[in-house]
């Protein structure tokens, strides 16, 4: 197992800019985890995480404490930390909750989204499609995918709901390593277009259904990989 579990070459996040350093470091690590840059079960240190986000160990220490509380990281012996390895049953539980919350966020977003927000989300999807055709890196593709989804969730203007969804993405983000990037993004493209169509028509039920199908499509691949690791195959949700 690679010590830091970083899935590829050249994935170091851009250095943290000045400002509220502790909050920026926390957000940067959230992005790293929720887009699958750290593999399930990977071991990390304060030094390796500090190098990844381009800062010193002090603000990373505070962020790690918070991430442990949010179940995105776990404490291990020897002052080390790790990325939890979810079982198929744990993933199914997270998926069931995501299906409820993210479909609801899409439904409400269809009622509340502003024209400029919708235009921005469309641009992200265009960037995602272009990056996929151009052979973009795993990090680029999953980062754009996250921007697409959270652009919708934030448009619902339900901050508590959005916060809960973000916490679930933190817990399951490393499982993106179980997805074949080319297959995953091309499958998602069709569902993303259906979601956008629902938003544009202000059809909340259509947007919610397309969101559910998008999540279930990715879940099929993830559960196949988890099942091959020893978990019994069962109905997704």
UniProtKB/TrEMBL annotation:
Organism, as annotated: Methylobacterium aquaticum
The organism's place on the tree of life at top rank: Bacteria
SUPFAM superfamilies: GntR ligand-binding domain-like, Winged helix' DNA-binding domain
Chain ranges of the HTH gntR-type domain: 19-86
UniProt keyword terms in alphabetical order: DNA-binding, Transcription, Transcription regulation
Identification of the protein by name: HTH gntR-type domain-containing protein
Pfam families: FCD (PF07729), GntR (PF00392)
MF-aspect GO terms: DNA binding; DNA-binding transcription factor activity
InterPro entries: GntR_C, TF_FadR/GntR_C, Tscrpt_reg_HTH_GntR, WH-like_DNA-bd_sf, WH_DNA-bd_sf
């Amino acid at each position: 197992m690679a010590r830091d579990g970083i899935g590829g070459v050249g994935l170091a996040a851009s250095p943290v800019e000045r400002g509220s350093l502790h909050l920026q470091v926390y957000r940067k690590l959230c992005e790293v985890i929720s887009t699958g840059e750290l593999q399930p079960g990977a071991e990390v240190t304060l030094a390796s995480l500090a190098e990844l986000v381009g800062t010193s160990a002090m603000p990373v220490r505070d962020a790690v404490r918070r991430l442990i509380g949010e179940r995105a990281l776990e404490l291990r012996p020897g002052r080390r930390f790790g990325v939890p390895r979810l079982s198929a049953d744990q993933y199914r539980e997270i998926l069931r909750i995501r299906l409820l919350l993210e479909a609801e966020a899409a439904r409400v977003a269809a009622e509340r989204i502003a024209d400029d927000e919708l235009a921005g989300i469309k641009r992200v999807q265009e960037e995602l499609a272009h990056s996929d055709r151009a052979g973009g890196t795993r990090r680029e593709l999953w980062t754009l995918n996250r921007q697409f989804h959270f652009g919708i969730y934030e448009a619902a203007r339900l901050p508590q709901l959005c916060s809960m969804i973000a916490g679930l993405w933190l817990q399951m983000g490393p499982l993106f390593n179980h997805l074949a990037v080319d297959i995953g993004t091309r499958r998602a493209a069709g569902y993303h277009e259906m979601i956008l169509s629902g938003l544009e028509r202000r059809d909340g039920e259509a947007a919610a259904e397309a969101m559910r199908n998008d999540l279930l499509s990715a879940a099929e691949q993830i559960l196949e990989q988890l099942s091959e690791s020893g978990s019994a195959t069962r109905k997704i949700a």
